[in-house]
Amino acid sequence: AKQSGRNRYIEFVDAMTAQQERRLQIAAAIKDGLANDEFYLLYQPKVKPNEGVVGVEALIRWNSPSLGMISPNEFINIAEQTGRINDITRWVIEKGFQQLITFQAQFNTQLKVSFNLSSLDIFRPNFVAYLVKALSNPNINTQLIQFEITESAYIENFDTAQTFIGKIKRLGCSVALDDFGTGYSSLSYLTQVQADTIKVDQYFVRNLFNSEKDRKVTDAIISLAKKLGMTICAEGVETQAQYEYLHQSGVDQIQGYYFSKPVAMEQLAGTLKRIDKQ
Ligand code: C2E
Ligand code: CA
Ligand code: CA
Ligand code: CA
Fold first, then answer.
1. Which residues have a beta carbon within 5 Å of ligand 3, which is an ion?
2. Ranges for the EAL domain (predicted)?
């Protein structure tokens, strides 16, 4: 028994070491990856029921030559812990703005694009100045740019988050509260934050027909957000039943595989056309 306990301990240490090693490899590879254009963006449509596509969310992808495809769920976290997140955010904004400008020139259409921000971006002193400059590009209509931030930004420092949001809203951009309902926020935040939109987390969508309690929480979030005049976007919508329930509950925007997976900019026009005909 002593032997097997020892073996288990060695296995545990090995697994820890392997995990640590992978984190270190990823952290080191992010810097080169940005320089070598190993990252790219996909765009997922947000659909207004009976009206069509109202915008898209930019989602980063990374195909590393040495490590293979790595999910943002894995590398964003590592980038946050190793001081690289703001480099990634700036890369996303630059690439996204370029692609948006090209798309609009090619299709002569106005497309609203949302970008994810890390709460660390919000607390970075020069980041607002960076955004002001990026948004001053005459080919960018700031009304078409949205930023998605998680409630953790508010929990860390309410005043800083509020000031940040106030500034980007004055530039004409809109703000969505991402992953709403999953953190430790209280509903009273909703009366104070200056966000235009809340994104109901896919956790709630997934549980709509599995958990009566989660469904009641979802109903309450939707009803409160509506009373406060906010736009509601539900994410992770995969089935017709989820779509219909959320539509009937008054959700304004539906995002999820039910309409489309995230697609490359080259496929976006075709995807938007297909959805609008649906
Ligand atoms: P998120 O912002 O909550 O994005 C939604 C995630 O759900 C995306 O995963 C999307 O591909 C996925 N998704 C969309 N529809 C469905 C569906 O119907 N079913 C299921 N099961 N999943 C769906 P993705 O692209 O892997 O991104 C994961 C997370 O990584 C994002 O969650 C976001 O927190 C972060 N992330 C992605 N791109 C960026 C970025 O450019 N900057 C930052 N800071 N974070 C990013
Ligand atoms: Ca998001
Ligand atoms: Ca989300
Ligand atoms: Ca999420």
1. 178-179
2. 23-276
Q: Which residues pair with 128 in a beta bridge?
A: none
Strand 174-180 relative to strand 145-150, pairing = parallel
Cα–Cα distance, 122 to 116 (Å, whole number) = 11
Q: Which two tokens stand for residue 158?
A: 């309410």
Per the CB < 8 A criterion, the answer to whether 175 and 195 are in contact is yes
| pTM strictly above 0.90 | yes
Determine which residue's CA is closest to atom 13 belonging to ligand 1: 236
CA pair distance 66, 5, nearest whole angstrom? 35
Ligand 1 centroid–CA 71 distance in Å is 9
| CB within 8 Å of 43: residues ≥ 6 apart | 56, 57, 58, 59, 113, 262, 263, 264, 265, 268
For ligand 2, the distance from its centroid to the CA atom of residue 163, given in whole angstroms, is 21
Reference 114, options 246, 251, 243, 233; nearest CA is 233
| Contact (Cβ atoms closer than 8 angstroms) between residue 165 and residue 158 | no
Spatial distance between the Cα atoms of 36 and 232, rounded to a whole number of angstroms: 38
**Cα(230) to centroid(ligand 1), Å:** 22
Ligand 1 atom at minimal distance to the Cα of residue 237: 18
DSSP 235: -
**Which pLDDT tens digit goes with each residue over 184-227?**
666 777 888 889 999 999 999 999 999 999 999 999 999 999 99
Q: Residues 6 or more apart from 93 whose CB is under 8 A from it?
A: 115, 131, 134
71 C-beta closer than 6 A to ligand 1: yes
Read off the DSSP letter of residue 143: G
